[in-house]
Write a structure and sequence with these properties.
This protein is α+β, with helices and mostly antiparallel strands and 408 residues long. Helix content is 17%, strand content 34%. It is built from 8 helices and 28 strands.
Amino acid sequence: MDEVTRRAMLAATAAGSVLTLASAANAQTAEPIPQPQRPGHGGTDPGPRNVVRDRQNPDLLVPPSTDHGTLPNLRFSFADAHVRQETGGWTRQITVRELGISKEIAGVNMRLNAGGIRELHWHKAAEWAYMLYGTARITAIDAQGRNFVDDVGVGDLWYFPSGVPHSIQGLSPDGCEFLLVFDDGDFDEDNTFLLSDWFKHTPNDVLAKNFGVPGTSLAHLPDPSELYIFNAKVPGPIDSDKIAGATPVPQTFSHKMLAQQPSKTKSGTVRITDTSVFPVSKTIAAALVEVEPGGMREMHWHPNTDEWQYYIDGQARMGVFAASGQARTFDFQAGDVGFVPFAMGHYVENTGTTTLRFLEIFKSSYYADVSLNQWLALTPPELVKAHLKFDDQVMAALHKEKFPIVPG
């Protein structure tokens, strides 16, 4: 048997093994093995392949026939991000390195155990946050020495402008988890200004002079490698952390997003948070979107900036229209990040059986979107008909008011 024949037989055996294993898995799960084909197009994939991934991304494996052309990747999952584990919790990030299209926004997912502290630090980028789980205590001061301390829970936000020093600590009973968003796609969570790091890299006599204490008092400072996210005692009631005589910041650094009255339709809700309701958040605006099964975030676009998304609950697919006949469809589930470049038309459809919940986030002081439905409704009818050949029934169905969530 020559080498070419031997390799061909091994390849055929391997392919057969993959199909046999896939058939066995199929028999156990009673789910069909997805194949990259539709009537008259594509074909089966005998492997090697990752069937779990294919099931998670059906619109990549079998794109809608309306998809066309090439677009950059507009999806990345925190499940594929490196996790940095520390004594007080963990962190992982999605920056321009992971999602190359996102030049102006980066995201960090962080978990602090009860008592766990993200050490005192500051950034060049502004920090916006959404609380996903548990409770935390946040602290900060501004450049005028005005003080801020608050406890935040699920659905609460905070925003620390660039250069503002701050801390985060997990509270009882089980700490917290949150999403951080930074107004710089090149942001790196490992490249922040850390309190302990500055002390380590400053001569002892300079530290002593600065604080007016003997140098021996500063001889046993902890190594920065021991901090970053580290364990500490769970703090007491918030009043115990209030600084006597301190002047509070004039604009609060926290906001209760879930307390906002949402825009409602029968298929979902939208809560918009920008400087109109959270004045300190000068560079990040956001919307919390909830879509019931079968519903859809209507076809629209944003006239001011890119959209960075974080999926909290449920399953979704997003279709993006990029002009020049380009269109592409992506699938999402909890923990995924999506991206829509500036001004591109898109929709987000609930493809699951539970409520879809996700954040739309923008590097902007204000939220803005343009509804396709509303645009057509407010355009002279004969002009619309000349373009799309709509009949009277379709024209009558158009909405002059914006309905951000539409039913299935």
